[in-house]
Every structure is written in structure tokens, then in C-alpha cells.
Design a protein that fits this description.
The complex is a heterodimer of chains A (305) and B (254).
Chain A lengths: L22 H23 L5 H8 L2 H32 L4 H16 L2 H9 L1 H4 L2 E5 L5 E6 H4 L2 H27 L2 H9 L4 H31 L11 H12 L2 H30 L20 H4 L1
Antiparallel strand pairs in A: 1-2
Helix pairs in contact in A: 2-12, 3-4, 3-8, 3-10, 3-11, 4-8, 5-8, 8-10, 9-10, 10-12, 11-12
Chain B lengths: L5 E10 L2 E11 L4 E5 L6 H8 L7 E6 L2 E2 L2 E4 L2 E4 L2 H8 L2 E4 L11 H11 L5 H14 L15 H13 L5 E5 L7 H16 L3 E5 L3 H7 L2 E6 L2 E6 L1 H6 L4 H10 L1
Parallel strand pairs in B: 3-10, 3-11, 8-9, 9-10
Antiparallel strand pairs in B: 1-2, 1-4, 4-5, 6-7, 11-12
Classes of the chains: A mainly alpha (305), B alpha/beta (254).
């Protein structure tokens, strides 16, 4: 089944040419090597970095508490964003003009106003609506609660980040769904699958290939956007670092501590994204075994050498 | 008298201001193979898509085994069927597309298993067993675990036929099944279709394969500009066309 392996067959007229020289590349490599050496040197020798302080605070309780909040806010906001985004995207693509319009207005409103303003709005909702109740519209109210106790700062963060994210995710999911050929849902329909079954079994799994890379972007972006919750007095990783350096004035070392954690989390997310991409790349990647390699090594392996 | 498998009565269909079907009348009996030919834009594919309600019709009545497709008639009024009822009607009608439309994220066997598993809630073992048998019938049993991208066009179309057969349809619709294939791959797909016809499957085949129509077809239908110009025994229509337009068309394609 396999043909003769490349390189083992004897050809009559082999190509044994002198390889093309690339002097420009060598110059670039030399320049970059010098710059890298300078960077390493200054990072190690400049006292201002205070690596001892970085080491002392990297795993300190306030930083780890902030980190936990960053993670919690990111995960929950993205869950709200993805679920809401799928719902909005399906609404936008529905044949019902009322649903399409409602989704369009939502996206227009939440993408068109600053996230900080939205966070503040949810936090000060009690100024507009002191009490929130459940009942018949324009009729009696059965249960009601004080908005101040209902919408804690944490809830306001989730509402602000999650509902804003849903608007962006809606457009990403819509793009993914529209990238799947119409023949796919027709074939599913002709087999007797309902529209929901066709969406779940046939269209969505294929749309995921297109949806996942920008969703990875959104998640990484959300990781850092959570630091905006400082405007409503909540705290996370960056706020924790700021609180510490505002008392001990070790600004740079504590910013390095926060940056190191952000980088670590982003790296973990990138690897996770690689795994999910491979799962949904099923049937599209002509050489599945190549997927076993780390995703960032996969591009142009011959150039990596 | 046996009931017709398909009964199209005065079917009209427009896309915007373009009238694509202008009064199609066609009856296909059980076990019959009807081949539909005609120039592009004549409405033959649209007609086929009306049979399983992939396109809604503007006027006329489409019946499969006596049941109105897409609607319910009661008290002289028509009621649109619910989506689940349309899906139910489609289970008995298999369809094969010009561009195969296999599900690229599933293997050949998973493609064939999809409808039995999702629609009929068959067990995985049973569905797999039948999928393997169906792929054997189209000569692809060794390709069970290949993805569509790893198959040639002819192989993909044969998997698509097996997928349509998985729901045990009473009627098969073929929408130019060989038009997207390289010439040397056409034969293997036509062979499978020939086998189906021999086994007594009722088929409506939109095609450009005159040889297949002559050999396998019981009826040949020539369509032009949304109307059936001529229909009859394939040999008669192909060798002694009555209508001028049929003659003109055949002189170009034969």
C-alpha cells in the first residue's frame, strides 16, 4: 500500500544543487540574539525588578484570592456569554422577524455602550428599581425582594460581563452557523431530522470549527477585562496587586506578579483551546496524526528547524 | 387498482417573480423508475425538491402514497403541517443530492447511522450493524470508518445512497446524482442505482445520463420552462420525440 519512502529510491538525475544563501536571515538572527541577551541581562541585573519581592507575593493569600475571583468571574461570565450568544444567534437566524429584531436590538445595545457603564448600571440598579417582584404583568405582585440585597457586587459583575459578552458571542456563533453549507441542514431534513436535531447533530458541530478560535480570543480577553470590576468596588487579581503596592510602593514587582499569573492562565487556556479545536476538527484534518503535535508547533514545521 | 406512489397535480412554484413550475402533472407508480431530463433552469430539480417539501409549492397538490405532502386537508380547507409531521413524512422519502451533502464530521458508517439513531432512536449496535450491511450493498464495506474527505466523489455518492436507504424509504429521489462526478466515477454510482431499480425501488431521477434513462427508466419525462413537454417510454421519447423542443434538446445532448 505504501509507496517507496522518500529519499531511499535511486533516481537517475537527482537534484544536488547548492542551497540558496539567505544572508538577510543571518543578520536578523544576529540582531535579535543581541537584543535578547540585553533583555535577559537587564532583567537579571536591574535591582528595580526586585525579584525577591515578586517571589514573596507570587503565592501570597491576597494575590491568590484575587486570582480565584478572576477565574470565577471569567468562567461564569463566559458561560453566560456562550449560552446567551447561542440563544441570540439562533434568534437572529430565525424566520420570525420579531425574534430577529429583538436579538438585533439586544446586540446593538450591549455592543454599543461601554462595558464600564454597563457594570455601573447593574450596580446602581436599585436607584431605578428599589424592589424587584414576581407577579402578573400590570397585576398583583406575589413575591418581591430588595434589589440592593438581590444584586450584590458579585452579581452585578456577572450581569455586566456576561450580558455584554453574550452580544459579542452572538455574532461569533452566527458567523459559525452561517459558514455551514445549507445542503447540510437540507440533507438532515430530508432524512427526517427535525430542525433542532439538525442544528444539534449536524450544523453546530461543524460550526464549532469556526466558532472556537474567536471564542478562545474572547475568553483570554475576558480574563483581563474582569479587572474592570474595580469600578464597582469588587476585586480580582489586578486589584489585589494594586492594593498591595499602594501600601508598600513596590509597584513594578507586584505588576510582574499579576502579569505572570495572567500569562500562566492564558497559556493554559491556549493549550485547552488546541485540544477542543482538534476534537471538532474531526473529518476536516486530512492527517489526524499531525494533530497529536502541540498546536503551536504545527505551523510550517520545516521553518521551525 | 394500485395507488400511485407519487401523484403531482398541477404544481406551480415561483421564486419571487420567476415562475419555475407552471402546472406539473406527473404520476409515478410503485416500483416505477421515472427519469426527468431537460435543460438547466427547466425546473426539474425544483420539482424534485417539492416532492419531499424541501420547497413549498404555490398551487396544486403533491401526494405520496395518497397522503398530501406538507399539508392536511379537512373540510375543504388546507392546514399547514407541523414541522415534526413534515419530518415524519420525509422518513419514507430518501433523497440523494448532486453535491452528496455527506456530514463531513462523521465517518461513512456514522453518516448512515445518523438518521436511525437520532430519528428512530435505534441502539448503536443495531444501527452500526445495518450501516455496515448497507455500505456492503453499495460496495464500500471497507470504507466504514473513513471520513467523507478521504473518499472519492463516486464513493461519497454511494455512501449518500446508503445513508438515504437507512430509513428504509419507499421512494427515492435523485437530484442529478452523477453531475458532480468525474466521468470515470459515474459508472459505479449508476451501477448502485441500477441495483436499486432491479430490487423494485420506486425512483424519480433527475439526470443527464441518457443511457441510464434508456436502460433503467420506465418513464422519461422531458421538462422545459417549468412544464412537462413530453413523457413516455424512454426508448420512444429518445428515438422518436414528438415535440420540436424535445428534438432540439436531444440533438444537443445525444
Amino acid at each position: 500500500m505504501t509507496g517507496p519512502a522518500v529519499g531511499t529510491t535511486k533516481h537517475e538525475h537527482p537534484i544536488e544543487a547548492v542551497p540558496l544563501r539567505h544572508p538577510g536571515r543571518w543578520v536578523a538572527v544576529a540582531v535579535l540574539a543581541v537584543l535578547a541577551a540585553m533583555l535577559v541581562h537587564t532583567v537579571l541585573t536591574n535591582e528595580g525588578f526586585r525579584w525577591d519581592v515578586v517571589g514573596r507575593y507570587l503565592f501570597s493569600t491576597p494575590i491568590l484570592n484575587g486570582l480565584a475571583n478572576t477565574l470565577l468571574l471569567t468562567v461564569l461570565s463566559m458561560v453566560i456569554g456562550v449560552v446567551g450568544g447561542i440563544g441570540l444567534a439562533v434568534m437572529r437566524l430565525s424566520p420570525n422577524p420579531v425574534l430577529t429584531g429583538a436579538a438585533a436590538v439586544y446586540i446593538w445595545l450591549f455592543r454599543g455602550t461601554p462595558l464600564i457603564a454597563q457594570l455601573l448600571f447593574w450596580n446602581y440598579l436599585s436607584a431605578l428599581y428599589p424592589r424587584l417582584g414576581l407577579g402578573i404583568p400590570f397585576g398583583p405582585v406575589f413575591v418581591s425582594a430588595d434589589v440592593n440585597s438581590l444584586i450584590t457586587p458579585f452579581a452585578a459583575c456577572l450581569l455586566g460581563l456576561g450580558l455584554n459578552e453574550a452580544a459579542y458571542m452572538a455574532e461569533i456563533v452566527r458567523g459559525g452557523l452561517q459558514s455551514v453549507d445549507r445542503g447540510q441542514s437540507e440533507a438532515a431534513g430530508a432524512l427526517g431530522l427535525s430542525r433542532v436535531q439538525a442544528l444539534r447533530r449536524v450544523v453546530l458541530p461543524q460550526a464549532m470549527r469556526v466558532i472556537i478560535p474567536p471564542t478562545g480570543n474572547e475568553t483570554i480577553s475576558m480574563l483581563k477585562t474582569t479587572s474592570l470590576v474595580v469600578v464597582i468596588g469588587y476585586f480580582e487579581l489586578l486589584t489585589s496587586a494594586q492594593r498591595i503596592y499602594s501600601t508598600n510602593f513596590q509597584t513594578i514587582p507586584l505588576l510582574i506578579v499579576a502579569a505572570a499569573w495572567y500569562l500562566a492562565l492564558t497559556s493554559v487556556l491556549s493549550v485547552g483551546q488546541g485540544f477542543i479545536e482538534r476534537k471538532y476538527g474531526r473529518g476536516f484534518d486530512p492527517t489526524p496524526s499531525a494533530g497529536a503535535r502541540m498546536f503551536f508547533l504545527r505551523r510550517n514545521p520545516e521553518q521551525a528547524a | 387498482m394500485t395507488e400511485p406512489m407519487v401523484e403531482a397535480l398541477d404544481i406551480y412554484k415561483s421564486f419571487g417573480s420567476v415562475e419555475v413550475l407552471r402546472g406539473i402533472n406527473l404520476t409515478v407508480m410503485p416500483g416505477e423508475v421515472a427519469c426527468v431530463i431537460g435543460p438547466s433552469g427547466s425546473g426539474k430539480s425544483t420539482f424534485l425538491r417539492c416532492v419531499n417539501h424541501l420547497e413549498t409549492i404555490d398551487a396544486g397538490r403533491m401526494r405520496v402514497e395518497g397522503d398530501l405532502i406538507g399539508y392536511r386537508e379537512s373540510g375543504g380547507k388546507l392546514y399547514e403541517l407541523r414541522e415534526s409531521e413534515v419530518a415524519h413524512q420525509r422518513r419514507d422519502i430518501g433523497m440523494v443530492f448532486q453535491r452528496f451533502n455527506l456530514f463531513p464530521h462523521m465517518t461513512a458508517a456514522e453518516n448512515v447511522m445518523e438518521a436511525p439513531r437520532t430519528v428512530r432512536r435505534e441502539s448503536k449496535t443495531k444501527a452500526r450493524e445495518r450501516a455496515v450491511a448497507l455500505l456492503e450493498r453499495v460496495g464500500l464495506v471497507e470504507k466504514c470508518d473513513s471520513y467523507p474527505a478521504q473518499l472519492s466523489g463516486g464513493q461519497q455518492q454511494r455512501v449518500a445512497i446508503a445513508r438515504a436507504l437507512a430509513m428504509e424509504p419507499k421512494l427515492m429521489l435523485f437530484d442529478e446524482p452523477t453531475s458532480a462526478l468525474d466521468p470515470e466515477l459515474v459508472g459505479e454510482v449508476l451501477d448502485v442505482m441500477r441495483g436499486l431499480a432491479r430490487d423494485g425501488m420506486t425512483m424519480i431521477v433527475v439526470t443527464h445520463e441518457m443511457g441510464f434513462a434508456r436502460e433503467v427508466g420506465d418513464t422519461l419525462v422531458f421538462m422545459d420552462e417549468g412544464r412537462i413537454v413530453e413523457a413516455g417510454n424512454p426508448r420512444d421519447v429518445l428515438t422518436n420525440p414528438r415535440e420540436e423542443r424535445t428534438k432540439a434538446f436531444l440533438s444537443k445532448v445525444l
